[in-house]
Amino acid sequence: MDDDLQLISDGDGLAVIGSPTAVERFLVSEGLPSKDLGLPRLGPTLSAVAGAAQKGAEIAADSGRWVKLTEQSAHALEKYGLMKGSNSGVSRAVLTKNGKIKGLLELEKTPGSFLTNPARLAGAAGLMAQLAMQQTMDEITDYLAAIDAKVDDVLRAQKDVVLADMIGAGLVIEEAMTVREQVGRVSAVTWSKVQGTAMTIARTQAYALRQLDALTEKMEHQTKIGDLAKTSKDAEVAVGEWLAVLARCFQLHDAISVLELDRLLDASPDELDRHRLGLQVARQNRRELISQSTERLLARVDAVVDRANTKVLLHPTASPAVVHAGNHVAVAVVDFHGRLGIEHGRQLMDARRWLDAAAEAGERALDTGAGGVNAARRLGNETLHRVRSVTGRLSSEIGERALRRRGDDEERGTPAEPVEQ
Fold first, then answer.
1. What number of CA atoms fall less than 13 Å from residue 310's CA on the CB side?
2. To pair with 296 at 20 to 30 A between CA atoms, which of 34, 320, 395, 407?
3. Distance in angstroms (rounded) separating the CA atoms of residues 77 and 67
């Protein structure tokens, strides 16, 4: 068994277990970056369950590394063809020295294998779930740093009790994670401090989602392009801030789950695997809820951008500003999705150049025949393909309309209002 490797996948990551030499050789040959799985943490718990210290010693002799599932590591899984487990939600296989797979039935002859020991397999799967969540937590930390968003500053700027409570909950959770790192476990005392924080985080998440909905509704209700440009610019900043709050919520939910699994490993190891699967479902539901809300946001932004694009001929400055803001929001959402593991394919909308729109209007006029000649004269008498004449004619008409409006208003003794195009 010294050269045998045990591979376990839970859909988020790959665990490679075996002798330190064999594990290292495999990872180097496949070019896979990895993290320590932390197998020694299972020793005391499984020794108590089995009633024999030898089980803990066997675990300590193994080396375990965790690999995040990426395109490269997923290719390795396909290459080695892991077999589905019966009820634990994991796939597994054993590689011999020559890279061939042993059947699971053959492993029944090897009681020391993780794959034939339910308690060990559940423990390893629990460690893998923790590492997957911690990986996402690290990526969210990088995301917040990359967008230069200090979430605490964003939250403190909002005079709202819901957000203030989240700051406090975050501090408590971070403290528990620090103690866990130092002690290596989550005691009843540590858990008692954090077990009520999940509701606070969920409430803040719901609040942030409502704020995003409110922002896009405000954009939808603007009828004037000038007002829409201003609202879009404001939303460009606000959406980024609320996405940062949502990312922080997801991060803190994952931290609570990591602490939960450690607490169960200590207190109720026989429930560990069922609880891990439950957390996995809850995490996916949370991801889908956020995905649905942000996809709705993108759909509304697209509608606003489409509306602005149709006005580009008469609003050559405000219309592209709306499109720019919409694309900025879209980029922010797509980046946010990537950090949370939400798959999304999107092509950003390009602002229509004013000249292109003017030329397109001229071509349509030509296609209309006799009626098009009159329309062409209104746009410019020299040639429809000279956009400069289009610009001059439109500016003249707009100026004349403004003067007529001003003259009428002066006769009535009322101030002139801007003419909306």
1. 6
2. 320
3. 11
